[in-house]
Specification:
The chain is built from eleven helices and six strands. It is α+β, with helices and mostly antiparallel strands. It has a six-stranded mixed β-sheet with strand order 1-2-6-5-3-4. A hairpin with a 5-residue loop joins β3 and β4. The termini are far apart.
Length: about 325
Amino acid sequence: MVGQNPMTHMHWMNTLKPILNPSTTSLSSPQQKVQTRGRKLGSVNKSMRRNPSEFEYVEASLETPNSVKEKTPKAKAVVKKRAKANAKAGVDDNSPKAKAVVRTPKAAKELPRRKKPKLVGTLFVGPYLNNFPEPIRPHVKSITDVRSDGNCGYRAVAYFMHQSEHNWKTCRNDLLLEVNNHYDLYENMTGIGGANKLRYRLSFFQDGPAPQDRWMIFPDMGHVVASTYNVVVVLLSQLQCLTFLPLHSRPPSSDKIRVLGIGLVNGDHFVQVDLKACSPMPPIANYWFKFRWEEAKEWETLFSLQIEAFKAIIGSDVATAESFDVD
């Protein structure tokens, strides 16, 4: 081995060392073979209890039988305030009297929330009532306001006939069919071209405000509404009050007769008026006597007493005629 390079010399020394000194060998005894097949022998642990988490071990070691919960900032403030008051009053902190000096204020009770009212229309007898003649005001049961978008007259009728002002388009269509089906009747009553003007006013079904030439007008539209639904229409305003009866149909039985009150307020807005039973009624529009059909004659005497009661309480400053004859 003399004359060989150092690396070769070191290699042979490491090879001979385990042979000359067996205690330094790198060999080790074989490991026991591990059984990888079949289930483990012995009883199976069927416990459902989980192993505690690390923080639970820590908390358990810190807890003591006489441990006291830490006071909240609010509780500390109350104790501090009590001690200060006791010191000022010269009372011992441990006495029962001292503990009663300062008391924790009770939490304020929460007020019950008000339920939002569910409104179909705005029912009231308020500011609009002043738009009617004073003698008739005590006979008004309620007033239903509707949206003022140029369709208010049709909305008021729709609320009465269809239980919702949102059916104003249905109302317009009903009135339009009435004029179309009895065109000659309304042409004779309103004059040449009058029926076409009514049809033009009624033929508006767009969403949004209606232009002024599409608004409901009285007295012409009063006859149309009464004849369309076979109801009695009562117009109330500060300047004119009229009753409109159906032009071409017989009245139903007395228990089925309906009175639709329409109020003109502020000069340009219609509302639905509910009158009390057997209340005074304005005189019948005089065009009804000129253009009604024979079948509708029976309507005339049904409200004679109520009409006379109205005439007795209303002054001459309120118009009770549809038109006037000039001599």
